[in-house]
Structure prediction request, 737 residues.
Amino acid sequence: MSLRFENVRLIDPEQGTETLGALRIENGVITADGPADRVIDGGGKYLAPGIVDMGVKVGEPGERHKESFRTAGAAAVAGGVTTIVCRPDTDPAVDTPETLEYALRRGRDMARVNVHQMAALTKGREGREMVEIGFLQDAGALAFTDCDAVVTNTKVLSRAMTYARGLGALVIAHPQEPGLSAGSSVTSGKFATLRGLPGVSPLAERIGLERDLALVEMTGVRYHADQITTAHALPALERAKAAGLDVTAGTSIHHLTLNALDVDDYRTFFKIKPPLRAEEDRIAIAEAVASGAIDIISSMHTPQDEESKRLPFEEAASGAVALETLLPAAMRLVHAGHMDLATLWRALSLNPAKRLGLPGGRLAEGAPADLVLFDPDAPFVMDRTRLRSKSKNTPYDGHRMEGRVLATYVAGAEVFNHAA
Amino acid sequence: MFTQKHLLGIEPLHPTEITTLLDLSDRYAELGRGVVKHSDALAGLTQINMFFENSTRTQASFELAGKRLGADVMNMAMQASSIKKGETLIDTALTLNAMHPDLLVVRHPHSGAVDLLAQKVNCAVLNAGDGRHEHPTQALLDALTIRRAKGRLHRLTIAICGDIAHSRVARSNLILLGKMENRVRLVGPPTLMPSGVSEFGVEVYDDMREGLAGADVVMMLRLQRERMDGGFIPSEREYYHRYGLDAEKLSHAKDDAIVMHPGPMNRGVEIDGTLADDINRSVIQEQVEMGVAVRMAAMDLLARNLRESRASAGVMV
Prediction:
């Protein structure tokens, strides 16, 4: 069956354009325009490629009480996300072809979005021995990362990178100097001191990044920094790119929309990793996304149950759910004038797809009909109890937000409708 | 005027609230020096002391303060109890809340833990020290001691010396003394200074003699060895040489400068033993005395507000 969206503003991140027009899809892919079996009048709302989110933690295996593929999938489509690329920081870690196959199968069976999986870089994410990078790659691992467990042993990391280079595998790292960040729960500074919370210098990120980039220069691996959150880290990143290294960087939606002061009176829903930064850093990172210095925005969706968060700040678990709030939160960047929609979608959709070798993120003929129809201005007040995720740990609870997903399509099939 | 429901820190207090509390503390200090040391300000009320961290002095001070005001005082040694069995702080709070305490005195090793607990109980909560965040009654007793020794609590130059980074006493003191419009100096090695300290409106010195020059009050801090991850200072003897308070270093302060220490002291590490005992300079014993008075005043004021709010809510008290 063919379908034609009419009277929609098409956001094309590849062309960098935003135009009023129509889009035709058939058999799950975008086709040349023409008449179709069915027509949807978008009423002047926006149609964009579905978001490709490469930082999603699902609680499978091991923590299904926090988030399952079913609930993560429901949250994703409600947030305009059509592809989730899952992190391997599960329990056990996704570090063998067997666990990878289990996770992929669960994702395929339970979620109504495209589910892909990343694998750990070292066994058990312990930073000692590399995983079976080749087998895992054959089984479908899109990238290799120990997530926030920084590989401290430089020899182990350099060998894993060298081996990965031979297979053309993408290595994703968490740039952070672990000696400096050990024991910290916020960014150092006046606020940390006032609250009496142990802080980490924002420079710990730059130190971690500089080390990683030197190793990239040494090994020639394809490298992605999962979250760049401080202004101090940006020059190193820009230098590496200018030198022609195969380097990209991401950041999280939280670091783009919140700052360190939001922690306020020990609000543990604002405890994330790396910790929220100063407002100057937030602005610098938003500008870096706009300029393209930072390539990718991801949700860093990290479900935590109430018990993990209802604790003194230092003891509370890190992380925030973000799939369902990703699009409205990202709209803040547009409404605040940091970037236009096409630029935003380059970071939300086109760049992550390109970096991971996925076909999404484009509106071109032949691209998958993974689409999101949304109203960037629709206001609402965030109520965490209504989230579709099993865990409700969103920092935006009670926030006024603008931007609502009206409908989401995966391979041409409607998987979410706001009116439904 | 004192409108607080809890005493969680100095930060939320208005200067007039601080003055109100200190004025009442003065009266309780006199009571404590009398023959009959008893009042019935807290008669019929239940005070529970929950110390999740070792304390002898503060706990004894709160206990004595409660007993002098006629409260039923219970001490719970939290280190030995349910938290060892895996109970969360909030569950512990809810359990205690079911016993209908009126005043809850809490010390906890994590910053913000007392705030969290206060959200879950319906009684007045007093922070007896949380992590490296605040220790409000210590700052108040220091303020009372200074006011009684100097006759005022404003436009004084006060040097706080030592391990500022790990000290909740320093946090509360620098906030309180700043609110009362004093000139606050922080003196110590850079490794023991907290981050962002230059934004607090204080002067920072790493040379002790410069930091003490012209000071009215010299406030020493305990070198919290148990808080150290290790490696903040090269050795105790080098620390004593550079930052230990002795007569020579004190000579740079004003002639009538007073010496304070929140205790317990490490003699020969941060302070010379003879100096600590010099009744002409040291007000360390007075601080202990004022501790009881300040805690009586704080609990009295909070109990008044508690009774008022319960009365307006129609609850019998």
User: Anything to note?
Assistant: DSSP finds 13 helices and 18 strands in chain A. Residues 318 and 327 of chain A are 22 Å apart (CA to CA). Residues 49-361+390-399 of chain A form a domain with the TIM Barrel fold (CATH 3.20.20.140). The mean pLDDT of chain A is 97.
